[in-house]
Amino acid sequence: MALVMKAIELLTVTILLAALVVAVVFFRLVTQLDLALFVVPLFVMAMVCLMAAALLFHRELQLATAQC
Length: 68
Description:
Number of helices: 2
Helix content: over 70%
Distance between the termini: 16 Å
Strand content: under 5%
Structural class: mainly alpha
Radius of gyration: 16 Å
Order of helices and strands: HH
Number of strands: 0
Shape: rod-shaped
């Protein structure tokens, strides 16, 4: 169960980072500022969190099916 909770936490962080990426891109369009150095790391962090969450869910499924 701890793996699922950690995966859900990572998915929540992913959602927040993705929302921040969208907000920064919108802000960039409105202000004409070059914010690529800010957007790229946010997007990469979001993808890393998403991959980690998927791996945790996969591990939880392996553990759950092994107990059956």
